[in-house]
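dumping this here so i dont lose it
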């Protein structure tokens, strides 16, 4: 469950400490090959970019697997 406040020991924590500097991204119009490559990259969530390369959301590897299974 999410807490209403950030624990004191994490207040100064920055995402850049744990994030990949060059994340594997997918576009809103990705090929099956792109999705397959993403799944073999070993990450559990991927940034989703529009045609202008702007972040529009995140997509989980589990959801990608469901998409591939249901084409």
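and the seq i came up w/
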């Amino acid at each position: 469950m999410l807490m209403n406040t950030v624990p004191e020991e994490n207040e100064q924590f920055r995402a850049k400490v744990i994030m990949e500097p060059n994340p594997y991204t997918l576009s809103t119009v990705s090929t099956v090959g792109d999705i397959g490559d993403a799944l073999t990259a070993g990450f559990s969530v991927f940034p989703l970019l529009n045609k202008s390369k702007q972040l529009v959301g995140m997509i989980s590897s589990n959801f990608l697997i469901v998409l591939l299974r249901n084409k």
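The first helix runs from residue 32 to 40.
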